[in-house]
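step 4 of 6: structure.
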Amino acid sequence: MRLRSDARGVYVIAPTPFHPDGQIDISSIDRMTDFFVAAGVDGMTVLGQLGEAPKMTHDESLAIVRQVVRRTSFPVVVGVSAPGFAAMRALTQDAMAAGAAGVMIAPPNTLRTDDAIVQYYWQASEAIGGDVPFVVQDYPLTFSVQMAPGVIRRIVAENPACVMLKHEDWPGLEKIAQLRAWEREGAMRHVAILTGNNALFLDFEMERGADGANTGYCFPDMLVDTVRLAAQGRRDEAHDLFDAHLPLIRYEQQPGVGLGVRKYVMMRRGIIASETLRSPGTALTPSARAEVDYLLARLATKDPRARVTPL
Amino acid sequence: MRLRSDARGVYVIAPTPFHPDGQIDISSIDRMTDFFVAAGVDGMTVLGQLGEAPKMTHDESLAIVRQVVRRTSFPVVVGVSAPGFAAMRALTQDAMAAGAAGVMIAPPNTLRTDDAIVQYYWQASEAIGGDVPFVVQDYPLTFSVQMAPGVIRRIVAENPACVMLKHEDWPGLEKIAQLRAWEREGAMRHVAILTGNNALFLDFEMERGADGANTGYCFPDMLVDTVRLAAQGRRDEAHDLFDAHLPLIRYEQQPGVGLGVRKYVMMRRGIIASETLRSPGTALTPSARAEVDYLLARLATKDPRARVTPL
Amino acid sequence: MRLRSDARGVYVIAPTPFHPDGQIDISSIDRMTDFFVAAGVDGMTVLGQLGEAPKMTHDESLAIVRQVVRRTSFPVVVGVSAPGFAAMRALTQDAMAAGAAGVMIAPPNTLRTDDAIVQYYWQASEAIGGDVPFVVQDYPLTFSVQMAPGVIRRIVAENPACVMLKHEDWPGLEKIAQLRAWEREGAMRHVAILTGNNALFLDFEMERGADGANTGYCFPDMLVDTVRLAAQGRRDEAHDLFDAHLPLIRYEQQPGVGLGVRKYVMMRRGIIASETLRSPGTALTPSARAEVDYLLARLATKDPRARVTPL
Amino acid sequence: MRLRSDARGVYVIAPTPFHPDGQIDISSIDRMTDFFVAAGVDGMTVLGQLGEAPKMTHDESLAIVRQVVRRTSFPVVVGVSAPGFAAMRALTQDAMAAGAAGVMIAPPNTLRTDDAIVQYYWQASEAIGGDVPFVVQDYPLTFSVQMAPGVIRRIVAENPACVMLKHEDWPGLEKIAQLRAWEREGAMRHVAILTGNNALFLDFEMERGADGANTGYCFPDMLVDTVRLAAQGRRDEAHDLFDAHLPLIRYEQQPGVGLGVRKYVMMRRGIIASETLRSPGTALTPSARAEVDYLLARLATKDPRARVTPL
């Protein structure tokens, strides 16, 4: 199954579960994958930035891909961003052979002109194979690369294999609106727009024309519900659910420390066995852990999913 | 009255109101200042980044300072950041002569080492006059300068005139905790820590040891209440109030577009006459305006302050 | 006299001479200006980055402009780059009223997309007055803004008042070639291209289509000769002269320390009275000074202009 | 043989020769290695930035290490910089097992405080094995990471395995002087300081206390001679030789295009078979090639090594 430009819904960004000694925790990967299936997600992205991709060897990366592809029937997207095309191509080819649906590519943070960005994606697509469906990751906060709407349109026009935008520009609501306006005018073909940034603006992004979420907030089940409510036009209900989670969404969206929050909550929810990060990684301090516990306790009064067993 | 290191509470960051033609709107400045007084703020900062300081001439800047100093009895802090020390000194001297309580200095975004940052503040203090109380603005998201906690400690140690930290690192909770730990251990003298970032983490910042807020969220009256509740240890009440405002706080915290949101809401609230920004400035699109209206309507069900007259 | 797009030759970037106490040294300004006239330069740019512009107040800046305009008959260009348009407009209007031929504008280092750069120059031109001739400064090493050739073409197309490019991209030879190719094809109107970067590539820049130099190397008289030889097609002679100076050119081109080198040599040559920089500025260490002396001694064996009186 | 802190002389940075189809050219690697031996270099660094390391897979990288280690008796240093420690450790272990003398590590370009840089090297050393000798690459122009002298001293103090600094800060002469002063005062243990930046300041770097060169200028034989002359105190002769090469050194030092210049000249000299770069890579334009030919022709009148067979 290949990723297509009519994808929609929630493509959850999966963390990589580790044992406390840093080894990959296969049984947690399985449990987490099953949880995602049960939650009703539409797809799954592994080995993104918050999947700790750069901390994995090629063989480890491939083992993770194989593990999740075997266990699911929905599309699996693989982050293949790398400082050079040789490693990007090698992982892409092995991942696609293992059954991945497509790959995600972030821009190197040295790109500084429109032309340089457009050229990079053209070269990358050529390097990995022009028939491999790919997702453009537009995340200036982390990558320091600003893609104007017109740049995204050029990438889409030049690369038939570009099928999805992982949109996490900030601010980004007007960018979604611009891309959708071009599509309506026939000035740009349709690609899926799924949004990231830990869902911090998911409520309004759906209303501006996004097709869903492509992020890894520790309650993917809530993302599924919010996207469904928004797609059904049940605006107030979507916002009510979203607002209940916003204090925690905001806390988890912090750069650096956010992944520790995400893994901690997923551990508290019984989805993965350990909150371990590979080095270099920022473990939560006791104060931060207590703050997350407090946020969970408050959230549990509004959404029963947040009721976790006391430690 | 000079700004002192025992400052606490809310020092509101004031926008600069303009007439639709871009001229400074003096009567809106007065009305806004009166509103701040009535809201119970403890001080006021003018000519910060979101006061559109770089878009003002020296004479305009000075006129604003004079206007607000005349009308208030609380301390007025003046942003004097400039690419060179000559302009910084000129504005500082005129502002202090006009009755300002102190100045705020942001680092130029070329500083890349601890020593360079420390040296910059030493030179700046010397340039403006070593007796002028100053606030260090620590805002890496906008200024691209990362100040490790140890750097702030060095700045405080070297400059007796440094009395306040405008803390808006992100993430920043551990930084507050570290600075307060040093203070308890006697390894750092006390300076006021007031937090920014549109109050996005004010709930926990207070619990970590902040002395208040130094930001410009469009409901400064809510900042006053949150800071007071937190200072009184009424934790759940503080969070309840904070959470009610969080959807709007988050929306206003967007870089670039945020100032337009702030001015629009302050106009809707009747505090200023026009939402005009000086060029270059990002005006709200009709979609964004409608989103803010929707957020205000939702907020009004929880906080009556948000009930605005329909347009 | 207004700056025009058919400008050519050497527009020397002038340092600002200070007395040892940091005050502006008017008589050194006069002596330096007379030296430039005698050297045969075609124009002069004051208040650029290496004119220490950000360290000057508005009034000081204007005094400098008046002093040099009075004393010369060639065009004087004034650097008016500022973090906001209010200060930029104020200095532009006063400088033009004082007889300046045009202004130079560098981009703020936050611009990250083609559209943002183009829009900035359009707004700046509107702010200073659409009839004021201006120079685009393209200096990515210092400003962190990358202008693709197409961006410069768009700026030229949208702004009739854009008459010159101060080209200091690095590498930059292909950019000159591209712009000149567009001009030959009728795809871009002619603007003057004068090159900077302390002349480090002046030899080949002239061969690629540059119209001259717009830099401040401590031997502007050598720049005049090199540009003339190159314009006359005396290639080997141009390179021979250039190569003799290259060891010193390279030494002076160092960021930060370079301006100290420039002022030291101009002081040794008797052009200005003191090598003083305003704070913050990097004074030469004794080792650096000795290295420059050694370079001057070596140069003097090839170019008699470098014979300076022993200290 | 392990790399030691008393290393000195020329450690040439080797490019990676490719066939025109992008495959690694083993026989050119051998011919190039033999040339380095004959030229009298003291060591060799493979897989640096200009060895196109990020464009290689792990297996290709290892094959290159094995090929050169087999053919030489001098130390071979291997660039192992990677976005994560897993890949860094994997290549280090395989390279050391294959006979490498040590590894070189560049900082990731997200590091922004002194503490973050120091911590990174500590974690990296732990990750690759605390007994593996390593070289710190200090190259702010490319990596955007500024290491104050005190940071380098801290890295050296905390990591016994740190034996060499590849110094390419710019400007950098005072940094060498500062480190050497600390060493003389007993405030810092000795590490080798070899300089990069295509040798643009090698003449004075040697006089400031550098132990040699660690760069890849297309005439490594000239680097050997310059370092020897400088070490023997034959100052004028060192500068005469250096100055003869400076026009070409400067041309090759251009970012981006420089590697194409280097490979082109090495091809013209018969050292490698093809100037091919892997994608993405900037091939020389015909104009650039003609300029290099002209520089070689001029150089040949001063240094017979530059006499190449006409094309």
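step 5 of 6: annotate
 - Chain D has a mean pLDDT of 97.
 - The first strand of chain D starts at residue 9 and ends at 13.
step 6 of 6: archive
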